[in-house]
Amino acid sequence: MNKGFTLIELLVVVLIIGILAAIALPQYTKAVERSRMSEAAQRLGDMATAAQIHYMQKGEFPAESDYKTATDVTFGTLNTASFTIGADGGTLTAGRINGQYVGSTLTLQIATDGEITKTCNGAGTKGAEFCAMAESAGYK
Description:
Strand content: 15-25%
Shape: elongated
CATH architecture: 2-Layer Sandwich
Order of helices and strands: HHEEEEEH
Mean pLDDT: 77
Strand order of the largest sheet: 1-2-3-4-5
């Protein structure tokens, strides 16, 4: 009597593993994306807080060049795309640099009165999904 598995049994196991992988991989990708979104939102919030502290201490927002050198980092697949800082407040934006959400952005408007306004701009056909993910990560 031979000990071992038949070809049919091995094919059934491979088929089951394939089905499980097909179900699990999209969920894993979404979880990773949500994690990266959460990190980007947190870092944008930290930058806004730092700008407010600087404003309270010195009566002006930091120079644009200070933001670019201090925050030239990548948040997963989001990176800091633009900084517009002026006497009346500023805007910090993290934009999607690749993947299915390319062109989508998270933006913080910082006012001199301390108010921070968060907006999400989802670009392309996946834009609504991008903003929904940002909201679920606590961005809005």
